Amino acid sequence: MRHVLSVLVNNSAGVLSHVSGLFTRRSYNIDSLSVGETADPGKSIITLVVSEDEAMVRQIEKQLYKLVDVLEIRDLTGEDALKRELVLVTVKAEPARRSEILTLIDVFKATVVDMTESEIMIELVANPRRVTSFIQVFSEFTILEMARTGTIALEFPTARKTRV
Amino acid sequence: MVAKEKSGAEIMLDTLVKNKVDICWGYPGGAILPFYDTMFHYSDKIKHILVRHEQAAAHAAEGYAKATGKVGVAIATSGPGATNLITGITDAKMDSVPILAITGQVPTSAIGTDAFQECDTYGLSIPITKYNALLKSADDVARVTQEALTVALSGRPGPALIDFPKDVQTAISKNTEPKELRLHPRHYQKPPLKGDIDRLADMINRASAPLLYVGGGAITGNAAAQIKILAEKANIPVVCTLMGLGAFPGNHKLSLGMLGMHGTAYANKAIMECDFLLALGARFDDRVALDAGSFAAKAVKAMIDIDPAEVNKRVGVDIWVSGDLNDALAELNFRVKAQPRTPWIERITTLKKDNPLRYYMGRGDIKPQYVIEKLWEKTRGQAIISTDVGQHQMWAAQYYTFNEPRQWLTSGGLGTMGFGFPAAIGAKLGRPDRDSIVITGDGSFQMNMQELATARMYNIPVKILLFNNGFLGMVRQWQELFYNNRFSQSDMDYNPDFVKITSGYDIPAMRITRADEIEVGLDFLVNTEDVVLLEVAIPQKEKVYPMIASGQKYETMKDYDEPEEGETPYMVIPNRELK
Fold first, then answer.
1. Of B117, B450, B540, B552, which one is the catalytic site residue?
2. Which of A42, B67, B86, B381 is a good FRET partner for B561, with 20 to 30 A between their CA atoms?
3. Cβ neighbours of residue A140 under 8 Å, at least 6 residues apart?
């Protein structure tokens, strides 16, 4: 099962190596990792998506807690947190297929960010499942280039209220 | 008032002194020269031992740390100096030994340019340290040094590394005091006890055949006294892991000695029969729980460990408490009921009587097991024993009875050949009142033999007991048992004349080859008040038994070998006392 772990870390130079190294060293399966600053520039959040069973995820959490720069870990797997990914795709779009593509873009509520006579560049921000299905649908066209971020997640304030 | 400014090197050395570091092991080189230059003025506060290979500096720091419980400090230059420390640091990580490695680094302006003797020491040390840092400013030196020392010792101990660029060593800073550590409190505060101790006590009280399974955490956690109280109060027999030897007195009637791959047959049989197994600072590793699924299959399993990540890592446990072992045991002992458990204690007595350790003698050659037993007698069981890795290590674990913690220094997790001799040097300097003896083999000794010069230079009276069978004995044993006698690359043909080599360092040495020389040889070893080496020729075919092969069930244990013609068995009385 896919678990989403949100790891608050000190924003130090080696922290990403420490965290990613732990995954290789202990052969944990990692689907994605994304990192960015928090409101406090001294701290970052690393969002990890791991495909492991419950017991292994608990083991991963405990191993992460041993790292000096790890401050807090939250499991944001369930419905109490919003997950988002961003994908940028450039597809081949000859005039004959353009309207078909534009319809699908509309269906996915994606955005056209650039266009030439033969190519369209699309941006989609959505939950991971919708991003995956978007990519599957658009792979029927020729995908010329694609870049996808990992998942980021944040607990809903309403959920946090009930938790606290 | 303007704060006094100091150089990075001075700040680090002052922080070490404040933390009561008074000895270190190391080897100078280009990128650490400013640090060594500053250290010149600290010679009255910190004694520096010049080793002959950086790996030995790390192992000596480990030996010191294991024998004293204090942080051992090893220093090396950048590049090859740092990489030579890597084995020792990894060893310390695997066996939870608090050491601090300080490595020189090329100047910050040269980092990343593939400069002379540059390597990514920080990156290399990530997976093998508990704490590591690359100093980029002298302003951080006091804080980082304090953090490294604190983390190395706290909780489950381990190695720390500070990479110290040459220009930062000389840079001046006003930050001379370690203020505001950037550490989460869990890295320096004693962890709270978590888990249901009442329920654990209740389970122990209801168990009819309980067993304590004691590991290295009992030694690093200074929990020996509480373990003895628990065992005696509730009448629970004790098995120790290789790392746990000494945490419970080997001569105690409740001691079953070591368990696992080369554990005593009675300890391993007790593991198969017990109905409750309490792991104390032990981690169910693959040399103990060889086949994780069938390990102590009849037992309800419980665990107390300071590292919650060890819970359910290899073997699932039914109940666990995380936190300081000593604190947990104090709580537990208060709740555990005194009871005789007569049937189980009688069963243990029978197991010991029926399955003693045994070896064979009678052909005039020297059996290493007998030599170690005699060494135990002659040192009154008081010596600090270091070992290398292989057959000699297992014989030492089996036949020298350890009655107190920090008396047995061995490389358990990493299994590092070359550990023993430098570790014995470190131990002797940490505890000069005790004999420090390294038991080694002809293969292992050659991995750090150059330290004879260190021992001679500083007159560190380490005693070297070298078993020579002309083979990598443990490799040979596995090749004989599992590879159909194909002794691929395990024959140490062209071993040197160890007595001549040792004499070359002006160190007294003797070689014995026959059983009737053992007495003379051991007297020479024990009574020579100097660095000294005794080489003992032993038969190539001699094997370590009992043995459970890797990954196998305990039921497959082979208890002992068959005698050669003309040999008679010699049984070892369990928990024997000195005559």
1. B117
2. B381
3. none
Tokens of B399: 């036949």
Beta-carbon contacts of B350 under 8 Å, excluding residues fewer than 6 positions away, are none
Q: Which residue of B has its CA nearest to A70?
A: B184
From the list B366, B427, B326, the residue with the least C-alpha distance to B66 is: B427
What is the tens place of the pLDDT at every residue in B265-321?
999 999 999 999 999 999 999 999 999 999 999 999 999 999 999 999 999 999 999
pLDDT in tens, chain B (579 residues): 556 899 999 999 999 999 999 999 999 999 999 999 999 999 999 999 999 999 999 999 999 999 999 999 999 999 999 999 999 999 999 999 999 999 999 999 999 999 999 999 999 999 999 999 999 999 999 999 999 999 999 999 999 999 999 999 999 999 999 988 999 999 999 999 999 999 999 999 999 999 999 999 999 999 999 999 999 999 999 999 999 999 999 999 999 999 999 999 999 999 999 999 999 999 999 999 999 999 999 999 999 999 999 999 999 999 999 999 999 999 999 999 999 999 999 999 999 999 999 999 999 999 999 999 999 999 999 999 999 999 999 999 999 999 999 999 999 999 999 999 999 999 999 999 999 999 999 999 999 999 999 999 999 999 999 999 999 999 999 999 999 999 999 999 899 999 999 999 999 999 999 999 999 999 999 999 999 999 999 999 999 999 999 999 999 999 999 999 999 999 998 998 888
pTM surpassing 0.80? yes
Among residues A75, A108, A124, which one ends one of the domains?
A: A75
Cα B151 from Cα B247, distance rounded (Å): 24
Q: How many structural domains comprise chain A?
A: 2
ipTM: 0.89
Please, which residues bridge with residue B24 across strands? B48
Look up the CATH number of the domain holding residue A89.
Answer: 3.30.70.1150
Inside any domain, residue B389:
yes
For residue B183, the chain A residue with the least C-alpha distance is: A68
Domain-embedded: residue A124:
yes
Which chain A residues are within 8 Å of B311, Cβ to Cβ?
A: 62
Structural domain harbouring A7? 2-75
3-state secondary structure of A32: strand
The predicted structure's pLDDT at residue A13: 85
Tokens of B138: 């002298």
Residue B126 and residue A59: Cβ atoms within 8 Å?
A: no
Domain assignment present for A158: no
Tell me: do B14 and B144 sit in the same domain: yes
Catalytic site residue from B54, B118, B331, B451 = B54
- One-letter amino acid at B107 equals P
CB atoms within 10 A of CB A64: 21
CA-CA distance, B531 to B509, in Å (whole number)? 9
Q: Do B312 and A18 touch (CB under 8 A)?
A: no
CB contact under 8 A, B309 and A71: no
B450 is catalytic: no
Same domain, B227 and B294: yes
Q: What residues does B263 pair with on adjacent strands?
A: none
Residues A85 and A52 in one domain: no
Give the end-to-end CA distance of chain A in Å, rounded to a whole number: 27
| Segments forming the whole domain that contains residue B121 | 6-187
Collapsing DSSP to helix, strand or coil, B477 comes out as: helix
**Å from B307 to nearest chain A CA?**
9
Residue B313 falls in the annotated catalytic set: no
